[in-house]
Amino acid sequence: METDGLEWLLVPMHQLVSWGAAGAMVFGGVVPYIPQYRDIRRTQNAEGFSTYVCLVLLVANILRILFWFGRRFESPLLWQSIIMIITMLLMLKLCTEVRVSNDLNIKRRSFAAADSKDEEIKAPPRRSYLDFDLNYFWHWSKFTDYVQCVLTFTGVTGYITYLWLDSSLFVETLGFLAVFSEAMLGVPQLYRNYQNRSTEGM
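^ Solute carrier family 66 member 2, sequence as received from the core. Prediction below:
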């Protein structure tokens, strides 16, 4: 009888805990990037943050979403991938704006410091996704280039997934690649820290 009496309380509590866990799963992955975003925005310095982290997470989450079409998993994980993609695009947008702004400031300082009008001031070259220059891959001057690259990757992998969706081997490989690429997340930041000899800006 007591169990029946407490059931009215336990069912909503269970539902509340379930929603809380799902919310934590969806938004938990992006929480570490909030202070990083604010720090980059405040200092106008993105040198400590590797944009390759964004690349790895974008690839991993796009592959995870495509994997969902072959083998359905819990919807909070699907939403987590969507939220993470949006977050990484926002991080890329900020980092690109900061980098371009800093390049312009350097150009202005160089111009002001020039003694002679004849002295030519060279602006940093603009890099584009459509240059297809592998030396500057993921170091483009405009955010739209990153979006084009992400859309191209999504379109190509989406089409391949559509063609091979009936193959369980392909679907499992897709899932493995999603998990594997996400597991390699620390490598770009580790390399950036090694180059900078610092963890500042992480």
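DSSP finds seven helices and no strands in the chain.
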